[in-house]
Amino acid sequence: MQTLYSIKPEIEHYGCMVDLLGHRRHLEEAEQIINNMLMKLNAITWGSLLNACRVYKNVNLAERVHQAHELEPNLDAGCVQLYRIYGFCQADGCFKNSKIDGKLGN
């Protein structure tokens, strides 16, 4: 983008890419974009990937993202998203015979 159009990517560009990749179920590619960003991650980009993890029930990636990119100690949105992911996966039986099943009280 920078070479072809002489436009420096901003946080909004990264956010759009993460959101698009998340909607298309390319969660690992979205994670790579976040990990290679040249700027500090914002809550919108982070939340977009967590939301895609919820939709596609990817608990492992959600936990990795949550642990690696805690934005602020007082920001509870990430924890809420993670618990929602756990809830959706538990309701669908994603945790049967897994270590996390015991942690959720089943």
Task: Walk me through the structure.
- The chain has 106 residues and is mainly alpha-helical.
- The protein has one domain (2-103).
- 66% of the residues lie in helices and 0% in strands.
- It is built from 7 helices and no strands.
- The chain has helices at residues 2-5, 11-23, 27-35, 43-55, 59-68, 77-92, 99-103.
- Helix 4 (43-55) packs parallel to helix 6 (77-92).
- The N and C termini lie far apart (49 Å).
- The model has no long low-confidence stretch (mean pLDDT 79).
Please outline the major beta sheet. Answer: none
**DSSP summary: helix tally:** 7
Radius of gyration: 15 Å
Could you give the distance between the termini? Answer: 49 Å
Secondary-structure content class: mainly alpha
Which helices and strands, and how do they pair?
Blueprint: H1 2-5, H2 11-23, H3 27-35, H4 43-55, H5 59-68, H6 77-92, H7 99-103
